[in-house]
Amino acid sequence: MKSDLFIAAGEASADIHGARVLEHLKQGRSDLSIFGIGGEAVGRQGAELVVSASELSLFGITNLIGRAPEIWKSYRKLVSEIERRSPRCALLIDMPDLNLKLARHLKARGTRVFYYISPQVWAWRGYRVKKIQRLVDKMMVVFPFEQDFYRARGVEAEFVGHPLIESIAARKAYRSQGEISAAPRIALLPGSRPSELRHHLGKLNETVSILRRHFPKAEFRLPIPPTLPTQEVKDRLVQPVLAQAGGALEILAWADIALIASGTATLEAALVGTPSTLFYEVSSLNAWVYKNFVRYQGYMGMPNVLLKEEAIREWFQDEATVDNLVGEARRLIEDEKYRARVTQRLTHCRRLLGGAGASQKVAENILAHL
């Protein structure tokens, strides 16, 4: 029994992006047989979920060790169905630890492999490029420089745009300088992992206490992602920080400025148009790894990587001090010209990522093969 498409969307964000691609595929071909791994969104688009994304969600090495037999069973189930159905093509989304293993089995069955949202081999673990050369027929990348990176290494690649453009509207209006300086709205994003919370929350609490002395009417909001315990975060915050469960986009759109631990949120802030500063602190061992292997073009934040300049200030490890965070926050609030310059660079960053339509371009690639 030969199927048309195997999809691997093993994480929450991949489930959303994969569902959008499937929606466009169904508009072109309503009769496609699709199976694989995904969440509720992919399932709603008619894919047969051999394995649910929740079965392979991993949060830390402790959970991985404890669930190893279960995870191995799910993986073998996927491989068995790939061998049985021999899909004509595959769509692998992000999650390289799983997807590059699946790609080996797919290629062995003669499946054409499309990979959407590349692993960041340009920043670290560059040895994976050789695997990608062997196992992936086409990389559909979401950052413009990735296309040149892969093509220079003999991998067929196409820049399709970034899927966040499809869901993040740019800020339509900004508050006046008087409103900002009198009662600034400040978003706090300490990260989504427990280790990030441990390193960053105390630093943000100190920063808030100092900023309140300078701006007594300042408002502070902090989004709590589902990966963190809501009540624990609330209990550890100083007043008057308002913490709320959910994503960061609503708070970033509300805020005048943002203090963000490095991660996807820096790109989200750039796409919304919220001036921000980036900071990150890790263990000494991880700091050594970051400094020697993970940075790209000397930068950590994706807006800076895209623009090839420090459009938003970065503070890493020893530089990620309360004094530096307070100083940069005050500059973004009080210096209107500086804030406008940062905002202008973020607008350019959004333009570099293209317009909406990444999902449709991915679907068109798959339909052309089918």
Features:
single chain, alpha/beta, Rossmann fold, 370 residues, 6-stranded parallel β-sheet, elongated, 7-stranded parallel β-sheet, 13 strands
Structure description:
The protein has 370 residues and is an alpha/beta fold. It folds into two domains: 5-162 and 354-369, Glycogen Phosphorylase B (Rossmann fold, 3-Layer(aba) Sandwich); 177-352, Rossmann fold. It contains 17 helices and 13 strands. The chain has a seven-stranded parallel beta sheet, with helices on both faces. The chain has a six-stranded parallel beta sheet with strand order 10-9-8-11-12-13, sandwiched between helices. Strand 2 (34-38), helix 2 and strand 3 form a beta-alpha-beta unit. Residues 58-65 have low confidence and may be disordered.
